[in-house]
Amino acid sequence: MVEVTGETELSSDSQNSPVKSFGPFRHWSQRGGTSLTRAHGWKLSLIIFLFLACVSVHAQETVFDVPSADILDRGKVYFEQDGTIHTVDAQSTFTPRIMVGLGHNVEAGVNFNGLGAPKLGQLDISPTIKWGAWKSEKLGWLFYVGDDVVFPVYQRSYNAGNYVYAMFTKTWAGGTRLGVGAYDFTRQVVDTGNRAGGQFTFERPVNKRLALAAEWYTGNHAAGYVNPGVIFKATSKLTLYGAYQIGNAGVTKGNHQFLYEIGYNFN
Q1: pLDDT at 122
Q2: Residue 11 DSSP class
């Protein structure tokens, strides 16, 4: 995060696509109303936390869903719990992720996707990496790239998938930051076919603790949402996020939900 001091018709692919999950994303279909696949689950949270303590690869920092320009310093560890509450049918989802700074402007991590209540979706494990390839501190510009590999492990509809992106961000005096970039999802990750488009972020500090933020994935697929919200720095280690997710399609049929995130810096 930045340091705090028209609804469209569904495509035929989206109407007929199976439930998929990728990282923080959920899938909405016209037939079923809403089928959430953001890493889900309250009852399995204890198991996930125990597992996280044992893994040696660690997911990238995001604004809400879109990878942010922040990259952890070498040896820094960050944990985040993401969740959604669907206002139409009370479906809840849960996505734990952990990140570690590797040095040389690189961070890596892993997302655990597909946990939910009362319905359980496709479960995925998604190793991620992000690299700050170029930076001009004087001009406030940063160029970074990243990649997530998606491995379904339960209710599998494909063997493996990929999400790759590239972003430019500009930071102004006072901390306002704007990001513009492009993405590509391989087939079955967010829709039946390959999907490419734009991803955008906006962050503006209000004071030392509070910032306004928004992000958008273009396209009519499981990742296609605009997310306006706020970020609150509760302590030096604890950060709270809240946003409302509005789908690029199917809003009047229930494709919208509340998003919350809890982030913790271990060192």
Answers
A1: 85
A2: P
For residue 150, give the nearest of 132, 123, 131 by alpha carbon.
Answer: 123
Decide if pLDDT at 59 tops 60: no
- Per-residue model confidence (pLDDT) at position 85: 94
| 28: its two tokens | 């909405």
pTM of the model as a whole: 0.81
CB 183 within 8 A of CB 190: no
Q: Is 90 left (phi over 0), alpha (psi -120 to 50) or beta?
A: left
Query: How does pLDDT run across 65-109, given as a tens digit for each residue?
Result: 999 999 999 999 999 999 999 988 888 999 999 999 999 999 999
Structure tokens, 1: 């995060």
Euclidean distance between CA atoms 149 and 23, whole angstroms:
10
SS3 content of the chain, % helix, strand, coil (to 5): 5, 50, 45
User: What does the CA dihedral 190, 192, 193, 199 come to, rounded to 10 degrees?
Assistant: -20
Max Cα–Cα distance, the chain, nearest Å: 51
CATH 2.40.160.40 fits 12-265, yes or no: yes
Q: Where do the domains of the chain lie?
A: 12-265
CA distance 247 to 242: 16
Question: Measured between alpha carbons, how far is 73 from 53 in angstroms, rounded to an integer?
Answer: 20
Alpha carbon distance, N-terminus to C-terminus of the chain: 17
Is 41's pLDDT higher than 80? Answer: no
